[in-house]
Amino acid sequence: MLSFNVIFLILFLFSWLRFDLVQLRLFLKYLVLVLSSETESKREDEIVGDGSNYVVFAGGGGEGRSGIPNALVISLFDSSSNSLSDQPVNKFGLDDELPYRMAVHPGGEGVICSLPKSCRWFEWEATKKDDEFTLNLKQSEKVLYELEHIGQQLAVTFSHDGSLLAVGGEDGKLRAFKWPSMEATIDIPDAHGSVKNLDFSPDGKFLVSVGSGGPGRVWDTSSSTNKASLPKENDEVFGFCKFSHDSLNNEVLYVTAMRDRGGSIVKWNTTTWKRISSKYVVRDPISAFNVSDDGRFLAIGTIQGDIFILNASNLRVQSVVKKAHLGLVTALAFSQDSRALASASLDSSARVTQIKETKNNGFNIWIILLFILLAAALYYAKTEGYLLL
């Protein structure tokens, strides 16, 4: 097995947005992998890399002769210059099959792609050229028969430990399996009108789904039952769901919600499954969403190409990148150290935005206030004759 650390994985297009496949062009979806050092004495299947950063894109023009090939493309990311390579390192063609969703296995085994009618499994492969190793993908001999001829899957995700796989279909059907045995654990034919997004709780005990029509739902992965519902308020439309933890290390669930006035972030208690808070954050529809691994930041992408980075402690906007892309933001992902945010767009572009730490000026403010109070006290003492100068 190829060993590496996954830095971040980007999800794909918001499921309720509809576009002609030819117009989609090469809509991008990618993840960044960091590989550590390698010596020549190690076997290829033990390679853990050379410290390079690889970025994997998936997309294409769909069926027909659009001129844009459907493919998985691996490029190189230079962290020092904060730039992506112009030319790919490797490319895997998919013929007429358009990759629509993608999830990486947390253990570094490979990548699963949602195609128009099925899901396919790809494995990592290290190739050596001129004494240097590069990363590649190859189609696995492992066929996911349980995911053949099941139609378009709009959500694909692994549990944090990689022992569970969940997929949600355009037809509203929700499925979950043990990995890699593919033993079915959840099979709900009408979980939603169509499934938009899925996420496992950190311990894998719960799976949250959001979709068109009805509330969000919490599923018990051991009993395959509906544990709780996440009701909507005031004609909300849920779009994305993501587990995380707060500053006190308490587990929380974030759900994006759209209303006429714009997009909000709804925060849920994962014990009572009650709302903790709801914060309006952006006027434009939310087309991409993610949370940093350390739980400190949330990121939002909009249909106007803007990117918002929020502080998770108070859900306030920390920074905004206006027109980060010319088109709709399709995907967002944080680096493992939360210092960078990658984004992809419908305009066929991708970029990495550095996240600057906000300085805590609270201590300085208290010093200023102390001096003001001291000056006021001295002035009062002087005017009242208590202080002799």
TrEMBL record:
Membrane topology of the entry: Single-pass membrane protein
GO cellular component: endoplasmic reticulum membrane
Protein's cellular compartments: Endoplasmic reticulum membrane
Keywords from the UniProt entry: Endoplasmic reticulum, ER-Golgi transport, Membrane, Protein transport, Repeat, Transmembrane, Transmembrane helix, Transport, WD repeat
Keyword Protein transport: yes
Regions that span the bilayer: 6-28, 363-381
Taxonomic superkingdom: Eukaryota
SUPFAM superfamilies named among the record's database cross-references: Quinoprotein alcohol dehydrogenase-like
Ranges for the WD repeats: 188-229
GO molecular function term, any single one: guanyl-nucleotide exchange factor activity
A biological process term (GO) from this entry: regulation of COPII vesicle coating
Protein name per the record: Anaphase-promoting complex subunit 4 WD40 domain-containing protein
Organism: Lactuca virosa
